[in-house]
Specification:
CATH class of the largest domain: Alpha Beta
Order of helices and strands: HEEHEHEHEHEHHHHHEHEHEEEHH
Shape: globular
Strand content: 5-15%
Structural class: alpha/beta
Distance between the termini: 32 Å
CATH superfamily of the largest domain: Glycoside hydrolase/deacetylase
Largest sheet: 6 strands, parallel
CATH topology of the largest domain: TIM Barrel
Radius of gyration: 20 Å
Helix content: 40-55%
Number of helices: 14
Length: 329
């Protein structure tokens, strides 16, 4: 870690602990956290190209320990209700419907009797949701998909990605992360989305989602609730998008006894078009990626969530610097 980054890290950690000692502003507060994957291997999850969207078992346990020391982990329904508790209420949400939810998340939460909410892109596709950043990054990392990724990126006229040169190590992972950041600046989101969609059909990416049996099993356990993930790479105002969303709602209603009447959105941009789509589909709320605490009265359709990354989950100081730094002034 560069010296400047180390200094900023120390400042964030110390500031987070200081803010946590000022507990009075948390009275009656509620927030929602957004997580993606919890992988089986901590070292794999900590690779630079995954650190923004993957946790490992150790970092997930550290996150839960940090939260339970200073907050209540509650159901989404409880977090959306006004309260006067001294400790803040925190709801956990997992986007994408990854199979890791069954293998890594469920055993830990069941042991601690903590609730969670999972948002699925389409309950019967057997394919978890990933952004183009994640799909392309993973495709470059894997030996069996790297050649396809290089070819598709070249065909689209995009900058050439880094080469592994036989070594898939932290240095190569960091090079992938920097390359993804370069693609982000290229302003070619449509082309990148199409590349990700093509790579997502590779065998390496299939069958990583929760299956119907697992969804039912988790719901019957009483700690997990399931909701719909809003369609991505689509226009919120189009009839096709509304049709896809309603079809996904129907599929979830067949699978689950009590599906959530709340959807989640992975897009960073939440606007009036998204609000209209949610209302037309009959959703009461849409959880966005805009960071912030829930503000009473909770009568708006679009609600904020805090996105949890690997560095934030691993450090109580950084976690509370991130959370408490967003308290209304």
């Amino acid at each position: 870690m560069p010296r400047l980054d180390r200094t900023q890290d120390v400042v964030q950690r110390l500031r987070g602990h200081w803010r946590l000692n000022l507990s009075e502003p948390l009275w009656g507060r509620s927030a929602i956290l957004a997580l993606r994957r919890v992988m089986a291997d901590e070292a794999e999850a900590r690779l630079p190209h995954r650190s923004d969207w993957c946790l490992g078992p150790d970092s997930f346990r550290q996150l839960l320990e940090s939260l339970t020391e200073s907050a209540q982990i509650v159901s989404l329904e409880s977090a959306l209700h006004l309260h006067h508790d001294q400790l803040p209420r925190i709801a956990l949400t997992f986007d994408g419907g990854w199979r890791d939810t069954l293998k890594q998340v469920s055993p830990t939460l069941e042991r601690l009797a903590l609730p969670a909410n999972v948002f699925l892109p389409c309950p019967v596709t057997q394919q978890a949701w990933s952004s183009w950043h994640e799909v392309i990054g993973e495709a470059l990392w894997r030996k069996d998909t790297a050649a396809s990724a290089h070819r598709l990126l070249a065909d689209a006229g995009l900058p050439m990605p880094p080469l592994a040169n036989g070594h898939r190590d932290e240095r190569y992972s960091q090079a992938i992360k920097l390359y993804i950041n370069e693609l982000e600046r290229s302003q070619k989101g449509a082309a990148l989305g199409m590349i990700a969609e093509s790579l997502g059909s590779e065998p390496a990416f299939i069958d990583q989602a929760l299956d119907a049996f697992s969804i039912r099993r988790l719901e019957q356990g009483g700690l997990f609730r399931f909701g719909n993930l809003m369609p991505v790479r689509s226009t919120p105002g189009s009839p096709q998008t509304l049709h896809r969303l309603r079809d996904s709602q129907h599929q979830l209603a067949v699978l689950c006894r009590q599906p959530l009447n709340v959807a989640a959105c992975n897009n960073e941009f939440a606007d009036e078009a998204l609000t209209r789509l949610a209302v037309n589909a009959g959703f009461e709320r849409v959880l966005t990626r805009r960071a912030g605490w829930l503000e009473p009265p909770n009568d708006t359709v679009l609600l904020p969530r805090f996105l949890i990354t690997q560095p934030v989950a691993n450090s109580p100081g950084r976690l509370f610097d991130w959370l408490l730094g967003k308290l209304p002034s």
